[in-house]
Amino acid sequence: MKAAVTTGKLREIRLEDVPTPEVGPGMLLLKTAYCSVCGTDLEYLDNTLAYREGGALHAGAILGHEFCAEVVEVGDGVTDWAVGDRATTSGFRGICGECYFCRRRLFNLCLGKEHERSIYTQIPQGGYGNRSGAMAEYMVRAPHQLLKLPDHVSSTEGALVEPLSVGVGAVEAAEIRPGDTAVVIGAGKIGLGTMQVAKVAGASRVIAVDLHGEP
Ligand SMILES: [Zn+2]
Ligand SMILES: [Zn+2]
Q: Residue 104 Cα, ligand 2 centroid: separation in angstroms?
């Protein structure tokens, strides 16, 4: 398959032929429809994520965790997904699947060490730059790392669910109510999504603050 692969040099990725990942038991093979670029992808390529464990830039990484993809193969033991389902990322990392929180499907609170591993996969390679990002034709994911997209959500919109969820979380935490004035600090992709969510929540005035002026 074709994939955008890091070379280990700053800000450089190259289109390469790499082996298509094989789907194992309990996993799904997905064909990427769209992949959005995250700020952390750029930080990884700038090697400014190196302070994180596994965050240092190296060659052979396939980035991309904001995606819409279609299930093309279902691993043994997976019952609630079928070929043709469209998925976006849930943002969940590897999980233990057994702790108090996992059994209640609150995977983001998993007490197991697995959740500290890559946001891309359960495979314990660790780090941001492993070989299973969505900037490739195919990728393998565990079902808990995915959310099914309903028919009324387009595939391009689906690729933006993960970054938009940051705004949903922020607006919920700030308890924005109809008629409120909301201030969003930072008007990048995450900030723009947060502004839209604040409006949907009923904010009558939304003020953006950024270091850059009007475009
Ligand atoms: Zn992201
Ligand atoms: Zn757990």
A: 9
